[in-house]
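Pair request: fold both.
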Amino acid sequence: MKNLKVNGLLLAFAGIITACSFVSLNPQAQNVAVAANSNLANNCKFLGNTNVSIWAKADTFQSQKSAESQLDTLARNEAVTMGGNTVVAESAINNGQRTYGVYNCSVKGLQ
């Protein structure tokens, strides 16, 4: 009976740890900026949208800021594959998902 309780606690702990996803920034995405607004039209070319997501229940186990940071990282990784150097959040986080606009901006547009 005691082993069953210990195993149950270990399983629950493992579930909580795996619920916290750790997203890595690809080395190619280090120079991709996360812009606060979409007023980038003058010096940026819109390349399209990307939808990124973390496990939908992961935000239950982490702060809003942590979820935003992980989604930003995933969007930056996606921007590289689309030829972009800037991402802008286009939606609120919903069930661990968020839509980002991907842009290719001149250096002047990033300031």
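--- second member of the pair ---
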Amino acid sequence: MIDVIKKTLLAGVGAAVITKEKAEAALDEFVRQGKLSTSDARIMAEKIAEQGRREFEEMSQTLSNKLKSVLDRNEADAAARLAALENRVLVLENKVTPTPTRAGEP
């Protein structure tokens, strides 16, 4: 039943995270209709708010990890491209600038 109420609240409020106060306010309608007691509504509001906070924190952590992974991968790609460019410049410099020869060599 809590899942149905949570889904109803999320759909009605349109929020990913519901504060305890918002959940209580939404559950008040169920209390007025006699479908829930006040204490049950308060307990459900606390559970919904806590679960919302946990889900938000988990999503934030997952997103943070994915972003870090993408940035690390991009950084590694950039370092590889930079090394390749440095190597190409070195090769071109060697072609343009003749290497010093020893005395007596042509």
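Observation on the second member. Residues 2-96 form one domain.
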